[in-house]
Amino acid sequence: MIQAYMSGDKITSNQASAFSLHEKSHFGEKKSGKIEYSPVEALFLLKEEKIQITQNKKLISEEQLIKKLKSKDKRIELKLPAFSDLRKKGYVLKTALKFGADFRVYEKGIKPGEDHALWLMQCVKESATFTWQDFAAKNRVAHSARKNLVIAIIDDEDDVTYYKVEWMKP
Length: 170
Known about the structure:
Elements (H helix, E strand, L loop, with lengths): L1 E6 L2 E4 L2 H10 L3 E3 L2 E4 L1 H9 L3 E5 L2 E2 L2 H9 L5 H13 L3 E4 L7 E4 L12 E7 L6 H13 L3 E7 L5 E6 L5
Parallel strand pairs: 1-5, 9-10
Antiparallel strand pairs: 1-2, 2-4, 3-4, 5-6, 7-8, 8-9, 10-11
Helix pairs in contact: 2-3, 2-4
């Protein structure tokens, strides 16, 4: 199991097993001789029992981690079901903050940085409202980045339905 450390809002590990998982499955980013995990990656790995996280030499439980992460990202629990579902299916997901979306989604087997993401994905609660303006704005950004938009609808049981949006020329 990977031992990781939380300092401020960063979760990192310098263990060989963290580097090995990064090379094999593209979890985390190499930064300053360590692997740094995004919040949703760390939460996913903790739930899958692949990582233990300590802060000030104390082990952090899943509930404690969720509470800490929610202080920075109130939507972390909404994003996790879609992240988990696609990760378990072999896709690689990375944050897409600069695109105004939740994730960049890479095809199975593609290493981020070696090829472009296929999709930009936005996670939406089934009961939430999503205006046409919101939809058009997300789709416009995806199109300008040469990606398709995927809307992940998460229901109350955390089941996910995906809708891919594509431009069409009649």
